[in-house]
Write a structure and sequence with these properties.
The protein is an alpha+beta fold. It has one domain: Ribosomal Protein S8, Chain: A, domain 1. The chain has helices spanning 3-12, 39-45, 71-78, 95-111, 130-144, 172-185; strands at 25-26, 64-65, 86-89, 116-120, 148-153, 163-168.
């Protein structure tokens, strides 16, 4: 880094204050919690890509629907009709830390049967802002999880364009429970 870049950076960061934040991850109370995998093992398993990134324009929506998913599911997700079971706050975190936290978060949510997630990434004011870089990586990373069925921007009261709703695939047990519930109705 040349001295001019460093002085420009320090000038730009002069009035920045750290965010007051309590917890980065909120889990629904009364859930059975298993012992987490060792952190070093999670890092070895982490398949989320890094490297070259096409930064998403600020006006483009952070949205995805896996093939085969009914459009009605995405529509309900957009309208906030699914209660958020767990959330993750990535605001102000370095990209690599976001990558690691997201990987552990999605894995844990899937293991515990959570289906509806809220991920807060922050709002970027310009194309190259840190929040927009994290948002762009998030769009890439979420698609890389087989468990992720859809995601879209959150409603304003949940963070608006600075957050996204994510829905995960049903677990085998949830599919069985659903099948049994519907089989009883048809009798």
């Amino acid at each position: 880094m040349n001295p001019d870049d460093k002085s420009l950076f320090l000038d730009a960061m002069e009035d920045v204050q750290p965010l007051k934040c309590c917890s980065d991850t909120l889990w629904q109370p009364n859930r059975t919690v298993r012992a987490p995998k060792r952190l070093d093992q999670l890092q070895l398993d982490n398949f989320l890509t890094t490297g070259f990134l096409d930064v998403l324009p600020l006006d483009s929506l952070l949205e995805f629907k896996r093939e085969g998913l009914q459009q009605g599911v995405l529509d309900k997700l957009r309208r906030g009709k699914y209660g958020q079971q767990v959330s993750l706050n990535l605001r102000g975190q370095p990209v690599e830390q976001c990558r690691q936290q997201l990987f552990a978060f999605i894995r844990r949510a899937a293991e515990e049967g959570a289906r509806n997630l809220l991920i807060v990434h922050g709002k970027g004011r310009d194309l190259q802002s840190h929040a927009n870089i994290v948002r762009s990586y998030l769009a890439r990373w979420l698609v890389e999880f087989e468990e992720v069925q859809a995601f879209c921007p959150a409603l304003p009261h949940d963070g608006g364009t600075g957050a996204c709703y994510v829905t995960l695939r049903k677990s085998a047990q949830a599919k069985l429970d659903n099948w049994e519930r519907h089989a009883k109705r048809s009798r």
